[in-house]
Design brief:
This protein is α+β, with helices and mostly antiparallel strands and 108 residues long. It has a domain of 40 residues. 47% of the residues lie in helices and 14% in strands. The protein has a two-stranded antiparallel sheet. The longest helix is centred in the N-terminal third of the chain and has 30 residues.
């Protein structure tokens, strides 16, 4: 009886994770502005260099200039970055934003 319970529980969990994974895969395009190209970052997927220009306003680092695309980036994240680093950073940011932030920027 218990073996049957664990077997059915495993199948139900596997089906739930499968359905959630497929739903996430299908919805990914909306989260990266696939339907709204004007919202996308025009420099995404390209190599960029910082071009110093005194006519530009100062950025957060105090430098005057802007980014210019110089080619296509050949960078592809590895297994560690995709499956360990990104989820870890996500969960740490989630925990920190819920517990220790005094600002109102996370509400809503």
């Amino acid at each position: 009886m218990i073996d049957r319970f664990w077997g059915i529980s495993g199948i139900v969990l596997l089906a739930a994770f499968g359905i959630l994974g497929m739903t996430a895969w299908l919805k990914k395009g909306d989260s990266v502005y696939k339907n709204e190209p004007e919202q996308k970052n025009p420099l995404e997927g390209r190599k960029v260099v910082f071009a110093e220009d005194g006519r530009d306003t100062k950025n957060a680092d105090g430098a005057e200039g802007h980014l210019e695309a110089v080619g296509v980036a050949a960078y592809r994240p590895g297994l560690y970055e995709r499956f360990v680093n990104e989820p870890l950073v996500f969960w740490i940011a989630y925990i920190v934003s819920d517990s220790s932030c005094d600002c109102d920027c996370h509400s809503g």
